[in-house]
Amino acid sequence: MRELAVSRFVRATPTELARHLSPATVVEAEETFTVSDVHDLDDATVVTAAGGGLQLSLRFESRDDGLYYTQEGQEGPFETMETWLTFAPENEGARLTARSRVSLGLPVATLTDRIAAWKRRGELERALDNLAAAVE
């Protein structure tokens, strides 16, 4: 299992970010999968997404300071993937941070999980850039 984090300053308040962040916008902002279905549950939102010949379900939970989400089941590219997308006030805007833990569950985990984390970092950097562009 590898953990990684990326962050960036956004010229929007935490309140503005909270209004914009939704499970579907986060998935689309990563630019890896396209949202095909969104299903609201009592305590979470499940997004079904597809791309690159894969389909997966992501379970999102709202938090006071952002969103937490994880890949459900074994259908996606990871054995384990969980992500915290948080925001906090900073200067006249907010600090938007994405932290993720990933594992492919393959032999030679030190190498394969490093590759998974590298790919995940790219997704999260694109997500932060796209989410910032949408609110600035």
Characteristics of this structure?
136 residues, alpha+beta
Structure description:
- The protein is 31% helix and 46% strand.
- The protein is of the alpha+beta class and 136 residues long.
- A seven-stranded antiparallel sheet has the order 1-7-6-5-4-3-2.
- A hairpin with a 2-residue loop joins strand 6 and strand 7.
- Helix 2 crosses helix 3.
- The longest helix is centred in the C-terminal third of the chain and has 27 residues.
Number of strands: 7
| Proportion of residues in helical segments | 25-40%
Question: Which regions have little confidence, pLDDT < 50, spanning 5+ residues?
Answer: none
How far apart lie the N and C ends?
A: 34 Å
The major β-sheet equals:
7 strands, antiparallel
How are strands sequenced across the largest beta sheet?
1-7-6-5-4-3-2
Structural class: alpha+beta
Q: What do the pLDDT scores average to?
A: 95
Write a compact overview of the structure shown.
It contains three helices and seven strands; from the N terminus they run E-H-H-E-E-E-E-E-E-H. The protein has helices at residues 14-20, 23-30, 109-135, and strands at residues 2-10, 34-40, 45-51, 54-63, 66-72, 80-90, 93-103. The mean pLDDT is 95.
